[in-house]
Amino acid sequence: MSKFENINAKKLYKNSRRGKICGIFSGLGDYLNINPLILRILGIIAVIISGPVVILGYLLVSVLLDDNTHGLYGR
User: Fold this and answer.
1) Interior CA angle at 46 toward 45 and 51, to 5°?
2) Which of 2, 6, 33, 65 is the most buried (most CB within 10 A)?
3) pLDDT per residue as tens digits for the range 9-37
4) Is 70 contained in some domain?
5) What would the pLDDT profile of 35-47 be if each residue is shown by its tens digit?
6) What residue spans of 1-75 are helical by DSSP H?
7) Mean pLDDT of the chain
8) Which domain holds residue 43?
9) pTM for this prediction
10) If you write DSSP's letter for every residue of 58-74 in order, what string do you get?
Protein backbone atom coordinates (compact mmCIF):
# COMPACT_ATOMS: atom_id res chain seq x y z
CA MET A 1 0.00 0.00 0.00
CA SER A 2 1.43 3.36 -0.93
CA LYS A 3 1.55 6.32 1.41
CA PHE A 4 -0.95 8.17 -0.79
CA GLU A 5 -3.72 5.62 -0.48
CA ASN A 6 -6.28 6.33 2.20
CA ILE A 7 -8.06 3.32 3.65
CA ASN A 8 -11.25 5.30 4.32
CA ALA A 9 -11.31 7.11 0.98
CA LYS A 10 -14.71 7.16 -0.65
CA LYS A 11 -14.95 6.08 -4.27
CA LEU A 12 -17.62 6.90 -6.79
CA TYR A 13 -19.49 3.84 -7.99
CA LYS A 14 -22.77 3.32 -9.75
CA ASN A 15 -25.35 1.53 -7.63
CA SER A 16 -27.39 -0.61 -9.99
CA ARG A 17 -29.27 -2.30 -7.15
CA ARG A 18 -31.02 0.90 -6.10
CA GLY A 19 -30.85 2.70 -9.44
CA LYS A 20 -33.70 3.20 -11.87
CA ILE A 21 -31.84 3.01 -15.19
CA CYS A 22 -28.11 2.44 -14.67
CA GLY A 23 -27.64 3.50 -11.05
CA ILE A 24 -25.56 6.61 -11.76
CA PHE A 25 -27.67 9.02 -9.68
CA SER A 26 -28.04 6.48 -6.90
CA GLY A 27 -24.28 6.00 -6.67
CA LEU A 28 -23.69 9.75 -6.86
CA GLY A 29 -26.24 10.25 -4.10
CA ASP A 30 -24.41 7.72 -1.93
CA TYR A 31 -21.10 9.46 -2.61
CA LEU A 32 -22.41 12.97 -1.85
CA ASN A 33 -24.85 11.91 0.91
CA ILE A 34 -27.77 13.39 -1.04
CA ASN A 35 -31.15 11.84 -1.76
CA PRO A 36 -30.94 10.32 -5.29
CA LEU A 37 -34.43 11.66 -6.07
CA ILE A 38 -33.06 15.22 -5.98
CA LEU A 39 -30.30 14.25 -8.40
CA ARG A 40 -32.80 12.54 -10.71
CA ILE A 41 -34.97 15.67 -10.80
CA LEU A 42 -31.91 17.81 -11.54
CA GLY A 43 -30.96 15.34 -14.28
CA ILE A 44 -34.39 15.63 -15.91
CA ILE A 45 -34.16 19.43 -15.78
CA ALA A 46 -30.69 19.25 -17.34
CA VAL A 47 -32.02 17.02 -20.16
CA ILE A 48 -34.83 19.48 -20.85
CA ILE A 49 -32.40 22.41 -20.97
CA SER A 50 -29.49 20.92 -22.90
CA GLY A 51 -30.94 17.83 -24.54
CA PRO A 52 -28.73 15.09 -25.95
CA VAL A 53 -25.50 16.34 -24.36
CA VAL A 54 -26.64 15.22 -20.90
CA ILE A 55 -27.94 11.91 -22.25
CA LEU A 56 -24.62 11.16 -23.94
CA GLY A 57 -22.75 12.14 -20.77
CA TYR A 58 -24.97 9.86 -18.69
CA LEU A 59 -24.34 6.95 -21.04
CA LEU A 60 -20.60 7.61 -21.04
CA VAL A 61 -20.46 7.70 -17.24
CA SER A 62 -22.54 4.51 -17.04
CA VAL A 63 -19.94 2.73 -19.16
CA LEU A 64 -16.91 4.15 -17.33
CA LEU A 65 -17.97 3.70 -13.69
CA ASP A 66 -17.69 0.38 -11.93
CA ASP A 67 -20.64 -1.14 -10.15
CA ASN A 68 -20.81 -1.03 -6.35
CA THR A 69 -18.76 -3.91 -4.94
CA HIS A 70 -20.40 -3.96 -1.52
CA GLY A 71 -21.75 -7.33 -0.61
CA LEU A 72 -24.84 -8.30 1.30
CA TYR A 73 -23.49 -6.99 4.59
CA GLY A 74 -21.96 -3.77 3.25
CA ARG A 75 -18.33 -4.87 3.30
Assistant:
1) 110
2) 65
3) 677 767 767 767 777 888 888 888 888 88
4) no
5) 888 988 998 899 8
6) 24-32, 36-50, 52-64
7) 77
8) 24-64
9) 0.67
10) HHHHHHHSPBP---TT-
